[in-house]
Amino acid sequence: MNPYSLLKMSDLSNEDIFSILHDAKLFDNSRKDWQLPMQNALVANLFFEASTRTHFSFESAQLQLGCKVADFQAGSSSVTKGETLYDTVKTFESIGYGCVVIRHSQDEYFEQLKDIRIPIVNAGDGKGNHPSQCLLDLLTFYNEFGTLSGLKVLITGDISHSRVAASDKEALERLGSTVRFAGPKEWEREGYPTMDFDEGIQWADVVMMLRIQKERGASLQGMSDGEYLEKYGLTKERYSHMQDHAIICHPAPVNRGIEIDSDLVEAEKSRIFTQMHNGMLVRKAIIKRAFGFAPFEEGQK
What we know:
Elements: H1 14-27, E1 42-47, H2 53-64, E2 68-72, H3 85-94, E3 99-104, E4 120-125, H4 131-145, E5 152-156, H5 163-174, E6 178-182, H6 197-203, E7 206-209, H7 225-232, H8 236-239, E8 247-249, H9 272-290
Parallel strand pairs: 1-2, 1-3, 3-4, 5-6, 5-7, 7-8
Helix pairs in contact: 1-4, 1-9, 2-9, 4-5, 4-9
């Protein structure tokens, strides 16, 4: 596996994480126009699952860096003829692509790609890992609070099917935050410490809402959208009990009126669209790293 691949948050040291966040912050300031100093930086985006934010955030990042981007469509490819994931990726490697970004419904699909030499960036695997989403969350928290140590983060909703919950838990706990989970008992996950949602709302610095991932089999039989919002969602009443400095986050897509009251999506405490902006910055830093370029120097403005 290429050393510049990014498959799981555990691939990154704490130093690596802060280097990526540092590069992302510079991409938002002094290095907005920085591009890869090379011709023909070919990148292929292989999305085997539907995506808006992650897919086009990566594409925006790649185009801003001067990459030439191939947008792979599985339905019009040899995948429909039985081609394996390995052979698809090996094809892109063989014809000159320097990096592939992959989202796939299979948990840890990348285990079958160990012999691929070009960098692989994981844009989400099953319910296992989503490192670029985790990094944009970390950037959002860091910009808000100036630290990732000592934060109290409540992640609530469909925990059992969420790769965001998994990646954020691993990284935040390693960096000194306390992470707790809330939501329906049916969606609890072993090893993920829970607390009462209403207590958590008053406790947390960050309230991270998750949607119901119906595409992965999540369902609560006999419960309407309104009933879910009242019991497990972020209502205006719960919002009023958040700490003054606390923020709302959500990896999106947002199901308005189900996991969060529609009026709260752009409320004063919401950082949902800020997360999306930060996602593009982080993905610029990830692609820069994938092509082998060192982090910008410390202290560089």
